[in-house]
Amino acid sequence: MASHSVEDIKRDSRGLRGTVEDSLADPVTGALRDSDQLVLKYHGSYQQDDRDIREERRRAKLEPAHSFMIRTRTPGGVITPEQWLKLDAIATTYAERGLRITTRQAFQFHGVIKRDLKPTMQAINASLIDTLAACGDVNRNVAVAANPLLSALHDTVYRQAAALSEHLLPNTRAYYEIWLDEERVAGDEGEPIYGPTYLPRKFKIGFAIPPHNDVDVFSQDLGFVAVVEDGALAGYNVSVGGGMGSTHGDAETYPRLADVLGFIFPQDVIRVGEAVVTAQRDFGNRATRKRARLKYTIDEHGIDFFRGEVERRSGVSLQPPRAFEFAHSGDRFGWVEADNGRWHLTLRIPAGRIQDSADRPHLTGLREVARVHRGHFRMTPNQNLVIADIAPERRAGIDALLRQHGLLDALGTSALKREALACVSMPTCGLAMAEAERYLDEALDKVQALLDRHGVGEQSILLRISGCPNGCSRPYLGEIALVGKAPGRYNLMIGADHRGQRLNRLYRENITEAEILAALDPLIARYAGERQPGEHFGDYLLRADLLPPEPALVRRVLAA
Ligand code: SRM
Ligand code: SF4
Question: Candidates 100, 216, 472: which one to mutate for ligand 1, based on the most atoms within 8 Å of Cβ?
Fold first, then answer.
């Protein structure tokens, strides 16, 4: 869709109403009108089709097998056991392939057909969760450090993140009219923060608490890195201009890590957050959609100009960044006891997919846990699940249920297998070029065999697979990444660090699995023989000068 038409559709949508209701009522097709497909994204849903049978249906002269993906807005990925049970029932009644935890701590439902869209949205809302602004050119689900180790501090940071998420919600009543049959208003409520054409492009915020960089904070348009002094939250280092998406063969687009803009006090989060959003609203590129993310606004206008805009709009003077240090990205697995004596368990959920199969009755198992659990659940930004806030005397019962349903098995696998990420990709993602989620297990088995052969099978190496260069599994922060190019073919990227502070680089282009393994084999062999104690794979590749040169436009963020 041409970029100007996206801007026109937004402006003409009467506050994101479009003609969605007419499209829903049309019995002739399982699809929505093109313009309504765009409007629908702001309501948290994408029209998709089953790509596995697309060709077969085309030959039979049938329209594609349309269905809808629905994404929740769950800041920090926090939900209660009651909500879990309701979402599970929705997945079982209306969707296919169970519940899917995303890389931004949300749930996705796949395969909802048009006539079930409204009942599904209503059921989600009845669980006191909504989907407003989960997609579209607005602020998306706010990602928040999921690590429960520092619980008091974590709670403060979570509350600030949830408040910012709430503050940046669109003002329109369209969502409540269309899905919840609320009273109709004129459609001229106005959008004080976004204006009539919303943002030029999607916008993402993450809050991290060092030493854990589980939200990959520098991949976010706007990041808040908590600064802890004397055990208390002193404030945040604010970072801007991160983003992963790129297009194969187009040097105008690139993944980029955020720049640290400065330090702010906790009470300034909302003012500074809104100022960054409105500066991007006004200076982001609305003529060329592929250059519309904040990262390009900053590269085009310069970081000093952008800092000036943020200070002017917020009335907050940013101080020099304060010291921080990340030890690692990804999740910490297993049981952890918090300061207050309560327990938290981070479970490994491969590719975030929770469904039942003969040997892995995971959906059923977590339903059983939700029935007895009195704390809450927390989805992680790495597609995993924390069963949080468990009283010591209830731990054994939950452990037994998890064991019985095979939910602890993945914790016993290697570090490589526990930490890997894969985006959804086929068969639902309309942009997929190669498999990702469905290829994850197989790819991991093969890379694991290589590691085992060289005696480094227990080494933690971040491996991430994306079905296309949009980078939904944040592959450019993987020590090894496969980025889909065509069915069965990937770009092999290597050399990111373990802390989410250095991007990887393109090592081999458009290669098959056999070629990927052949390319990795000598690198892993050298790593096994030459690594220093505690040295990670990506860092070794850099030190040993085994990486191709850094592309000119790619930036690196160094700890302040
Ligand atoms: Fe994503 C588009 C799935 C996190 C960058 N992403 C899509 C769509 C909606 C495809 C589409 O536009 O038709 C995918 C739906 C697939 C499906 O069938 O479900 C999709 N993205 C996902 C999820 C579900 C991946 C996952 O396996 O968990 C993640 C949902 C997050 C959420 O809950 O909100 C997801 N997407 C990301 C991330 C990672 C992150 O946010 O931390 C990125 C990279 C960070 C970034 O935004 O730069 C990401 N998705 C993209 C892009 C590239 C944006 C760009 O600047 O170029 C697209 C394509 C686009 O926007 O045009 C995209
Ligand atoms: Fe789809 Fe590409 Fe995102 Fe994977 S990375 S979910 S293939 S858009």
Answer: 472
